[in-house]
Q: What sequence folds into this?
């Protein structure tokens, strides 16, 4: 049985655009014999029942996420394909801790570099997605990934990297000034921010924050690496090395318009930079990976590749329709929250892990209960509107025989109310 | 406010085409009537609350706690608050606990501290700056600088253990009803509707937080992650009294204690305590928690 590893496709001359996929590919190329697995650049999370990539398919079984895949490989091969088998207790603890550290510190930096920095996103990342996705996913997935990356990094307060957010903020300030009546609307000059002006300010303002963030990531790793060939042990790579390769390759390799992350890495962590290059060559081959490499059966003369690529199945009409329906549902306000509840429920019902039956049943029941909550909130909203209308009828705001009169009155009095009456009064209240 | 305006002289009557165009954009009369009545009354600003806590003159740490245990200095039931409460106790700073909520905090999150002798205005100190303040007060050492592994192992607490905690407390229905509803929701109001809304908000916030890093909330993966994290922490502690072989407990001990104490605390009233089972496998972490509990 050949294992199929489904990943996001190649970009930036790396075999995948996603750090977790890169880490999994590195693990496979180091641990699993080359004839026992194939790499499928399906680039569509809906191929896997968990809606996540990387996903490993072995017959009917699907496993997703780097950690779960590593665990599954260990069980499947009875410990033969396990890079972490020779570690002692302290090294195992370090392996766990540094893995968690990498995932939590490197992910936001990669989000900032590839997605939140507008000029990088629009000039490099977005075109890369355009090359590797098929219709209609190329229109649906990148905006979703983009906004997820923004949400993950919102707490860092670095929205200055994001030109869209800057523009929104400027508009808000502008309309606030108009609303406060400080300046008559006609006199407010539209500040003309050119992109280059914004960039100049961006890189100065955010520089200190980025310095701190990159230092926090690279310094412990550089100290851990020391003079060794690998992060934990001198002689052989571990799963931590694969994870580090995945994340650091995306920091180092892509040619970006605004390469602050690569600059920081090269200036702060020389050892880590050469280590990442060495690991990339070892895991992904020395030649730059092109998008065409991922589809060997489509190209007339497939170039020999370091990785066992297999051409993904072409999307069928049913799949395309399903994708379109799904994204429509995800963008409908009430439906989307019902679907969010389902994500929890499906995860519970499909889990084969060591949850006891009672626990699993309770969780499924809980998720179903949450669905009822959504329906209750819909009912509450409808009830509220009905109550407001009822109140208005009861206090006589709608009185059919007077309707005509009101309209007449409004006709006459509106210019007065707007021009002469309300505005000065409102300013009086605000003390202006 | 409109009564005087009807008689304002000197306004030229609008020309007909303008009025007709405006007609389409006009607010319907009944709705306009409703909004014309606002604001009904403008109240003067509220007085600052005069509670028993305001008369104290020591350092005041604002945490999630019920008033009874706050008066006796018992551990808070919120891991973030407990971490800083324990840290200040360990380094030997005296303070009074004040039960509070997020709405009271200038940053929107608890804990924060009002120092007895404020430096530069009466500014509250948010949790992010508490360590710096404590170092200035008692000249304890900044532990992050002493060991390379501090930040690395702290990420286990801030991610794997915290995610499992969020799941266990907020998304596990039995625990949410037995624990979170009792400690966070019920003290704030007696109104059933508001309680239901607050509960829904809490759970939604936890769910959003977990979905930020994964497409699915996979309970078994979260528990496995927490299990690995506890195992790594137990290995790091080894046979030492405190983390990193220090003679006195410090910030890292406080961070670990904040979770281990609440997981093992019987008064929390857990219904499903999978984290507790995982933690019981590591005898040294359990003893570490018992040693530190003597400070309270």
A:
């Amino acid at each position: 049985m050949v294992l199929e590893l489904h990943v996001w496709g190649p970009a930036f001359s790396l075999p995948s655009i996603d750090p977790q996929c890169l880490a999994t590919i590195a693990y496979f190329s180091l641990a699993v014999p080359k004839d026992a697995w194939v790499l499928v650049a399906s680039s569509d999370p809906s191929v896997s029942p968990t809606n996540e990539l990387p996903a490993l398919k072995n017959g009917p079984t699907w496993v997703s996420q780097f950690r779960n895949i590593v665990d599954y490989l260990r069980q499947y091969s009875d410990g033969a394909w396990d890079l972490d088998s020779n570690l002692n207790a302290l090294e195992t603890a370090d392996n766990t801790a540094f893995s968690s550290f990498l995932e939590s510190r490197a992910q936001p930096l990669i989000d900032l570099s590839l997605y939140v920095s507008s000029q990088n996103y629009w000039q490099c990342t977005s075109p890369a997605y355009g090359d590797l996705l098929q219709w209609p996913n190329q229109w649906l997935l990148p905006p979703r990934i983009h906004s997820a990356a923004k949400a993950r990094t919102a707490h860092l307060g670095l929205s200055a990297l994001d030109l869209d957010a800057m523009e929104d903020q400027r508009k808000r300030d502008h309309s606030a000034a108009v609303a406060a009546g400080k300046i008559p609307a006609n006199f407010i000059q539209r500040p003309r921010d050119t992109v280059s002006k914004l960039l100049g300010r961006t890189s100065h303002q955010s520089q200190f924050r980025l310095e701190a963030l990159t230092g926090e990531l690279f310094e412990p790793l550089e100290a851990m690496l020391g003079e060794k060939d690998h992060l934990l042990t001198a002689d052989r790579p571990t799963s931590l090395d694969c994870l580090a390769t995945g994340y650091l390759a995306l920091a180092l390799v892509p040619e970006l318009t605004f390469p602050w992350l690569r600059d920081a890495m090269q200036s702060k962590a020389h050892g880590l930079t050469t280590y990442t290059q060495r690991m990339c060559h070892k895991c992904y081959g020395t030649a730059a990976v092109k998008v065409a490499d991922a589809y060997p059966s489509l190209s007339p003369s497939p170039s020999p590749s370091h990785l066992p690529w297999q051409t993904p199945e072409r999307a069928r009409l049913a799949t395309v329709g399903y994708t379109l329906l799904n994204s429509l549902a995800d963008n409908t306000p009430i439906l989307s929250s019902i679907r969010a509840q389902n994500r929890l429920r499906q995860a519970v019902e499909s889990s084969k892990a060591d949850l006891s039956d009672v626990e699993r049943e309770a969780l499924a029941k809980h998720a179903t209960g949450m669905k009822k909550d959504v329906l209750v909130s819909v009912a509450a909203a409808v009830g509220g509107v009905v109550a407001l209308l009822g109140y208005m009828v009861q206090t006589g705001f709608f009185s059919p025989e007077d309707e005509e009169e009101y309209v007449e009155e409004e006709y006459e009095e509106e210019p007065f109310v707007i021009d002469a009456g309300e505005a000065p009064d409102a300013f009086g209240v605000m003390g202006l | 406010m409109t009564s005087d305006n009807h008689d304002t002289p000197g306004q030229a009557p609008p020309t007909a085409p303008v009025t007709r165009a405006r007609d389409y954009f006009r607010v319907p009369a009944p709705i306009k009537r409703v909004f014309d009545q606002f604001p009904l009354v403008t109240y003067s600003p509220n007085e600052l609350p005069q509670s028993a806590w305001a008369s104290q003159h020591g350092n005041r740490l604002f945490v999630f706690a019920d008033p009874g245990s706050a008066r006796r200095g018992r551990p808070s039931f919120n891991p973030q608050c407990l971490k800083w409460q324990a840290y200040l106790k360990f380094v030997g700073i005296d303070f009074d606990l004040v039960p509070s909520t997020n709405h009271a905090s200038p940053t929107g999150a608890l804990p924060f501290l009002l120092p007895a002798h404020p430096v530069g205005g009466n500014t509250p100190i948010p949790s992010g700056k508490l360590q710096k303040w404590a170092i200035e007060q008692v000249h304890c050492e900044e532990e992050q600088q002493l060991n390379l592994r501090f930040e690395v192992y702290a990420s286990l607490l801030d991610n794997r253990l915290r995610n499992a905690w969020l799941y266990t407390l907020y998304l596990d229905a039995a625990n949410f009803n037995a624990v979170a509803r009792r400690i966070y929701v019920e003290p704030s109001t007696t109104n059933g509707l508001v309680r239901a809304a607050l509960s829904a908000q809490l759970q939604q916030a936890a769910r959003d937080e977990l979905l930020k890093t994964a497409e699915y909330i996979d309970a078994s993966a979260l528990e496995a992650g927490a299990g690995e994290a506890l195992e790594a922490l137990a290995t790091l502690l080894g046979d030492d009294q405190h983390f990193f072989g220090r003679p006195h407990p410090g910030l890292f001990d406080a961070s670990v204690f904040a979770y281990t104490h609440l997981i093992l605390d019987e008064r929390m009233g857990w219904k499903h305590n999978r984290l507790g089972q995982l933690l019981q496998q590591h005898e040294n972490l359990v003893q570490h928690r018992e040693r530190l509990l003597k400070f309270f």
